[in-house]
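Example 3.2
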Amino acid sequence: MSGYDILLTGGTVVDGTDPGGPSGGGSGAHPRRADVGIRDGRIAAVGDLGGDVSARTVLDVTGRYVLPGFVDSHVHADAVLGRPDVQEAMLRQGVTSVVLGQDGLSFAPGSAETVAYVARYFAAVDGTPPPELAGGCTVAQLLDFYDRRTPVNVAYLVPLGTVRHEVLGPDDHPAGDRLPELVRLVEQGLDEGAVGVSTGLEYVPGVFADFDELAALCRAAAAAGVPYVSHLRSYDGGDAPGMVEARDLGRTTGVPIHVSHLRGRAEPLLAHLADCAADGVDATFDVYPHIYGNTILAMKALPPQVQAGGVEATLRRLADLTVRAELRSNWFPRVSTDLAPAILGYVAGEKFRWAEGRTLAQACAESGLDLPDLLCDLLLDSDLAVGAIIPAPGGDESDLRAMLRDDRHVGCSDAIYLGGHPHPRGWGAFARFLGRHTRELGDWTWPQAAWHLAGHPARRFQLADRGRLTEGAVADVVVVDPERVHDQATYDHPRQLADGVNDVLVAGELVLAGGELTGATPGRALRRGEAGR
């Protein structure tokens, strides 16, 4: 049969298979002039398909590159993926699949109480859960909710902070004899299709998990053959204690480890990754192409003991003048230098919403408050729901580029789509990978770009039949103008859409055509162990 549902003609195919190491000299296919025929949602043929084949839809992509749809391996879209502006921001960069459940906190598996905790504590990151999930849900129910609801595919990690809250609440105490309950929830989530487990070891309650607890949960992941994805306990310091803990978990349990948004000075970090390899630990990591990060202000501004017990307990402490005096004397002097340049991206409270887009130093000057009082008053007024764009620990762009060039890297945005002045990475990270780091700087060849952004993350997270443009693969396809693609979002104007990607298909359906959303929602829930659909 020669007829196709869609035929892409005249383009250059970059297929997403492994280009083989930093030189790109491995077995992966080089860019080549080829047509792509799509039938029943899959790649039916790649090559010179001639001029006499029939197709219901023909796209002339002459002068453009045809790549597999990109996988955003770390993104915070759990509550906002149904928003058309978020879908447009992703698709205009070629992102067709996302991995949710990051940093140890999301909505499943959890009761209504746990979902409410995550929604409140992580309000500046994940936002308000959809009503269908707010009453509590399992991993299976969460994946069912996303299936065919958006143009983008969804994979999910079991968030271990959510699991901890479900069993132990937000307090600082060991799991003890309740550890088997945590293990059972993790095993259930993996059985229901999660592609890994995640931690946020600087967030509450994940910060309170000890090594033995993490090891028990990692053994469940190792038994399922999926990675332990970790926002480390610490990214600071040359000895990288967070990396040591992750390596030791991999060595102790046999679990593959994947480090979230690994940033800092490249030389010691790459040395730690080499130590992982020497110890037989399968280690990968993701990095976004920006120097500034984005997180909840409370995590950076307050010590863990002030955050113990949940949001209400934290607010009571911040309102206590004795606690504030102690913080002023013994805590804020240690963190004020790092916090002063942080940009306020999301402020929930009315009183200080004017400060969105300003640095904390600027907000102090305009409010007449010093940093300790501003931080406490700001967090109190916003119910802790404040997001901040903060310089990443250590390193500069040369370190970032060295991390990107490492074979163990996979692409991510770590996007947060909330607030009046969000981080620009949600609107531009993947376009920046292509425009700046591939075309301009040459950190990657185009085959390497397709591997880092599609083939490698699809393999790492077992997204069956995705991440490559080969016969039989699911037809998640992005068409890129290699001369024009670039990010336009900036720290001053963060919501500007990327340029250079106008046509995107998911499972063989056009979801972006001529730069516009089509309204199609073929995005699937990508469950572990299931063949791509």
